Amino acid sequence: KKLQGRRFAPFEDLFDPARGVPVLVVTLIALLELAKETLVEVTQAEAYAPIYVRLAFTPAG
Q: What pTM, to 2 d.p., does this model score?
């Protein structure tokens, strides 16, 4: 839901530290699985630069 309607979302915005480490780990694993299935795109300009995530849109038809 946090990615809907946004071009790119900063990686850290996808996590809520108040929910605890187990939720953070599950969210990270889910994000990695979405990237593996090419449902999201993860980009980083260079080492140690911010990481951005966006929904991967496939053309209909």
A: 0.72
